[in-house]
Specification:
By secondary structure, the chain is α+β, with helices and mostly antiparallel strands. The chain contains 13 helices and 8 strands. A hairpin with a 5-residue loop joins strand 2 and strand 3. The radius of gyration is 33 Å and the shape is elongated.
């Protein structure tokens, strides 16, 4: 009788996780990742901004901007470029008033570069103002130029031009300040480029990478250390989805780490620079391949299963201890497709 019992097999049947369950679980994880990234970015940015070097660069940029005349401080204390500032008070300002603001900004900038720039650079910037106003392409529908030189050689608005003052502002002053003078601010004003580059580098090489890496570890890796059976993320835990290896056992720590690296650094990061192509390929494999595996799972021979009815085991010894007790029945793992 004992021999007959020992020959019987313990049958453990797993079923692949439903596709739509996997999609929703992934969506939950993505939303958690975005939320975590946003919160971490705000926190890390706040820390970076308290450093002396960052504070000094920010202060110098603000000083240069305000002294250049291309930026002003609004009633709330925020620093705005002059064109944006004019747009904010647009409802209370006539076209002539906008032009006065713009011309005052240009005159201030020309005076500023004479003080801080090389004399050749300052003269080049002044000449660009004259050349831009006398550009032959700057004319009304009848071909009359916006600006002409008077008998004394001064550049004035052309009375014969049919363009309205708003057209003067939109077609000349806005692009000249936004494009030409802002370009000169970056390329010709001493130290401005270095300060802005420093702040950009802090954003690109410190704030964003740390936020991205930390949020990814917290959402996609740390939960798998708590939900060891099946290496589940929070989204997959909610929908009872676990991972098994080729032996239908819970993946080892090394395999789980390899999966995270392939998914996070190979799939997600490359997707940021390739319009999501790696992620689309992985999703297509999950949807249409024979075993419904995403790219990381395909590479490591892993599969997502439904754990709502059966538990996932770490090894065969655990099955003998927890399930077979003293009967020592052989184990027969089966992975069945959903009906």
């Amino acid at each position: 009788m004992e021999n007959q019992i020992s020959e019987k097999k313990i049958e453990i049947v797993y079923r692949p996780a439903k596709f739509w369950h996997r999609c929703i679980a992934n969506l939950i994880d993505i939303l958690l990742f975005v939320l975590m990234f946003f919160l971490l970015f705000l926190g890390i940015r706040a820390i970076v901004q308290t450093t002396p070097s960052y504070h000094n660069a920010d202060q110098k940029i603000t000083e240069i901007r305000l002294e250049s005349g291309l930026y002003v401080k609004d009633s709330k204390g925020e620093i705005r470029d002059i064109i944006t500032y004019i747009g904010v008070i647009d409802a209370d300002l006539s076209s002539y008033g906008k032009i006065l603001y713009a011309e005052d900004s240009i005159d201030t900038f020309l005076s500023y570069v004479e003080k801080v720039c090389d004399s050749n650079d300052a003269q080049e910037i002044k000449n660009s103002y004259d050349e831009s106003r006398l550009n032959k392409n700057l004319c009304d529908d009848a071909g009359n130029p916006y600006f002409i030189k008077d008998s004394g050689g001064n550049i004035i608005r052309n009375e014969q031009c049919n363009a309205k003052l708003q057209q003067y502002y939109d077609n000349f002053y806005v692009p000249y300040i936004d494009n030409t003078l802002q370009g000169y601010l970056v390329t010709r004003v001493p130290n401005y480029y270095e300060y802005t580059k420093y702040m950009s580098n802090m954003l690109v090489f410190v704030e964003l990478p740390i936020s991205y890496l930390t949020s990814g570890i917290l959402v996609y890796f740390i939960p798998t250390l708590f939900f060891k059976r099946g290496r589940k993320t929070l989204g997959k835990a909610i929908y009872h989805i676990g991972l098994v290896d080729k032996n239908i056992l819970s993946p080892s720590f090394k395999r789980n780490l390899a999966r995270f690296c392939i998914f996070y650094f190979g799939e997600l990061i490359l997707s940021l620079f390739t319009f999501g192509i790696p992620y689309i390929i992985s999703f297509s494999l999950m949807a249409f391949s024979k075993k419904k595996q995403g790219f990381p799972d395909f590479m490591l021979n892993l599969q997502e299963i439904d754990t709502s009815t059966n538990n996932i085991y770490f090894d065969f010894d655990e099955i003998s201890i927890n399930n077979l007790k003293h009967e020592h029945k052989p184990v027969d793992f089966k992975l069945r497709d959903l009906p």
